[in-house]
Write a structure and sequence with these properties.
homodimer; 411 residues; alpha/beta; Alkaline Phosphatase, subunit A; 2 domains; eight-stranded mixed sheet; five-stranded antiparallel sheet; 14 helices; 14 strands; 19% strand
Amino acid sequence: MTAKKIVLLILDGISDRPCPALNGQTPLQAADTPNLDRIAKQGICGIMDTIAPGIRPGSDTAHLSLLGYPPHEYYTGRGPLEAEGTGIHMEHGMIGVRANYATIGPDGLISDRRAGRIHDTAKLSRAIEEGVDLSAFHVTCTFRSGAGHRAALALKGDGLGSAVTSNDPKSTGLAPPLIEPLTGSPGDSQTSSVLNEFVRQSSEILADHHINRERKREGLLPANIVLLRGAGQMGHFEPFSTRYGMQGSVISAAALITGIGRVVGLTPVQVPGITGSVTTNLSGKVTAICRELKSQEFVLANIKGSDEAGHDGDPIQKRDFISRIDTAIAPLLALEGTLLVVCGDHSTPCSIRDHSADPVPLAILGDGVRIDRVAHFNEIACAEGGLTRISGGSLMPILTDLVDRAHKYGA
Amino acid sequence: MTAKKIVLLILDGISDRPCPALNGQTPLQAADTPNLDRIAKQGICGIMDTIAPGIRPGSDTAHLSLLGYPPHEYYTGRGPLEAEGTGIHMEHGMIGVRANYATIGPDGLISDRRAGRIHDTAKLSRAIEEGVDLSAFHVTCTFRSGAGHRAALALKGDGLGSAVTSNDPKSTGLAPPLIEPLTGSPGDSQTSSVLNEFVRQSSEILADHHINRERKREGLLPANIVLLRGAGQMGHFEPFSTRYGMQGSVISAAALITGIGRVVGLTPVQVPGITGSVTTNLSGKVTAICRELKSQEFVLANIKGSDEAGHDGDPIQKRDFISRIDTAIAPLLALEGTLLVVCGDHSTPCSIRDHSADPVPLAILGDGVRIDRVAHFNEIACAEGGLTRISGGSLMPILTDLVDRAHKYGA
């Protein structure tokens, strides 16, 4: 028997280092994980450097690497990926920029970098997209809201560069600096001029917008300036379906991950109630995976809450959320003719509250895998598995081979 | 003590995936292998991606990689290697082409792609080599028989290309197409013209040959056309003896493997009764290895039958042939001062009846190796070995080091 479909379930930041609060165990070791352990026991395990040993991955570079798009070749900054994640179709050469709605006081200083954690900004973004006119620069722009205070800007025009600074002062009480080119290239200079003009015009639109007038009446901070960062030029991505011969979907609350899925041609799937945090709708996500498999050959699903708990430095919360993941994924173990692949994208140790380069655990369950002796899904046990230690760039070739879609090199 | 000689025993396609017919074991796990297990137990083990993780090797690219000639640098198609395997000395720049004797009917359609599984075609090949005249193209040709209906053609001439199509229609009942250039380069165009003229002249020679007249009288299919495929240009191979400081031999029933050995300068050894199948003369091969070691420092031996059983999708036959291999190799365990290296070149899972990228098991027995805790030679057990997971390109450097022929890098 050979499996024909693949579920790649990425437990974001799941792996960790020994935590004193857990008697020296990692949150994954300490969690109650009968289902993850069954995947490990009935499948093949290993550990994985999603980029390379000792390289601390971002979620973006890690996911690109795991999908088989080497980040040193394909990663051009977070902007274009976030823009795709908000639903903007980024064409090759367009500039994508991350945006935050923020609050600036009458003194010209930033008073809140998230505009009082504003959300539901779609109307504001539409007003900006419709009102801003960059025709003097022969540039058109698209501006879309993401989750919460987040948004993304895309610029289309000839010869635009992406090596520019940000107008985000990074802390409150400071004035937003002008955006400046980082090189002497005319394209970077042009982009910085365009972005400064975008900030100027969008600020005028926001200053007078009825939503901001209402927010002020209600004692809320107005979203009266857009902070821009992470500009990058959209690259050329060979479609996933061309590269692997499989059609696929992406399921994630994070615009960044959805955007990465979109740029490689995976279809984004909406799931109600997913939040990208420990409060997310886990069972809704699992139901969506099972539903997508009826029509797709590949499903990428990301569960983000474990990463968040790591960033918060909270091993108890991380452990408990992992136990909840374990309960929620039970239906995936009953899938037939499907490889179930579970791994992290990077470690997020509670002790450092950020990503680390510690390898992530990996388990593959399904027809054809060589079943090793590993019986637990955690950082230590998986290191004794039959896959030994692989790099993230090897994952898709290995999976493609297991589902018998690989091509022979030679005869 | 340091071993001075190396036997590299390649069990072609030996590794597999769990087989339902063997209660979830692989044929290698299910076979009776006290000798292979002793090599594992008294040696060091690991698993190996002969090319790279997830890359499905051909036998040709795998053997090149294992001998330390990276296929992406050295592999130019199977033609030149097969030509060497038939005994043609391929010089750098010559074009090698695989050939099959086939039967074409009076209607111009191919009726049998193997000419009734003809064998002993040496006289036909000699008649073709002597009769075909390509001097109008300033080209000379050599044509030699291989095993069964197989043969190989070599062309020598200035500026010949190798990117050309085949005249093999791939199924019976179709007319052989003309060979065409795959690019606009004059060299490819020249080669396709030469090959079409070769087919035309050789067909005339075959039509009238007394062997074919006799075959017809006996009710056998005539070998009256040559089908050509796999054209490639001979590259430049640094000799094995220069690269590693060892003289060596190659023992294989497969012309392809013999050819690979020859192109790197290994001496081919004839062994009576070897067939490249499960009926081969295993003990004759083992005797030849022991004899070659008296004068050579390196012996490459390939046993093909396990691959054939995998291609046939027959786990029982594969298991039983592996047990027979195990019995036959007993004399190799008594070799002194010699590293005995046993591995696959690729996996050939019965479930997919073709090569896969699953890593192969590897064991090295001999003076100086670090003995690990692995006690069985199979896909699962070897993954826990002291070599962990290596790539095929690392094998010869590791072996060269073990026999103390490596050079220090630095001081």
